[in-house]
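Appendix B: a complete holo record

For completeness, this appendix reproduces one full record from the ligand-bound portion of the collection. The bound molecule is zinc ion. The inputs are the chain sequence and the ligand SMILES; the output is the full three-dimensional arrangement of the complex, encoded as structure tokens. No fields have been trimmed.
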Amino acid sequence: MIKSYIKLTVLALCIAAIIAGCSKNTADDVKHPSSEPAQTAITAGEENITQEVTAVQEVTPTQDTAPTEEAAPTEEITPTEEAAPTPEATPDPDLPFAYGKKWCEVIPASEMFLESYFAIIKERLQTYTDEIIGETLINSSFALYDTPYNAADYSDYDIADDKVIFTFSGATLTGSEHPEFTYECDLSEAYAFMQYDLDGNPIHRPEIRELDASKKMIALTFDDGPNVDIDPQLDEVLLRHNARATFFINASRCVRVPDSWTDSVRNLKAHGHEIGSHEYSHLFQNKEDYDREVIWTEVNRSNLILADVTGEAPQYLRLPGGCNIEYFKYLPMPYFYWSGAAADWENRTLKSGETKEDMYARKEDATYNNVIKGAKDGAIILMHVNYPEEPAALERILSTLDKEEYIYVTLSELLYYKGVTPENGKQYSLIK
Ligand SMILES: [Zn+2]
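The structure of the chain with zinc ion bound, as generated:
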């Protein structure tokens, strides 16, 4: 019922747009989110769900976890730009309903939102059905912990005013008779996960610089941030060498510590570095029996917080310790191991007769040597923001690699220039 109603609404909007001379302004019932970081509260949001539904969608499991590194880059989906819409521009009733943006074009939910956003919705639906209906999500792709996400399950959506409304038809969620569900999300929150703006133009996240693709490229990655003492020093060295890096952040630190820690993340992003997720609280270990509910909570919370802090959902994940278990094939993001490591965490115990300063100097040498050893075209290098000697080591590393004409790139830039489209639920290391 609601689906038909929304379809009719969109048809009416389309007709209104045509009558109004196809002016862009006819879409003004849709608010454009500001570019300011969303200030959305991170809650389960089950109060946003109202009754109704039908139809179960089978899930196609994701393939194996072996990294594919030769995938061709996907084509950009360019929205058509016809200036003069005609009555034929009304949505095809056979297409899944989607946001009827400018000139009634349809963007499927799977293209409009990052998969990581569906993971968040899925977790909230789970909470709702567990706690409110008293039934577990069963026998459907919404079963949170045992099935991958399927974009088709979220195909019915609408954007209006300050919210995004997902409609779930049929008894999909619980397998028993329930009326239609609609689930509303704040647009300010959803915007950080959207791939098109409200005029239907692609949002280019993240930024890719114009670079000489024939040069050797290396992606330096720094884990365990933010760190208000070390981040600015690393940033200063990176900027001086025209280098961009990727910082994998533990979102819990953005919540528990003063604003300056959050500012540090924003500052790094403002200087062109990429912000990835190191999950919420640096919890995972290499254990096959790791609690699946905890995995989802850690990943989803981190994504929501980092989206809130930077205005953009993180695209990539690094699991603490490089953790990689079979279950991660269900992760709604690609995750990154490394091809070379500073091993800056090793051998930090003071040796006999050694001062702290001696140890820092010893570790600076070790970090320098380890990174130089791992430097090659397409390398992903693991470093950390935890250690006082790291900025000095980085200065030496970049001074040496400058002579070999390396370009220091973000993960997104490395993937782009190597023609690799990362897939969710897969792990990557050397990119070539
Ligand atoms: Zn870590």
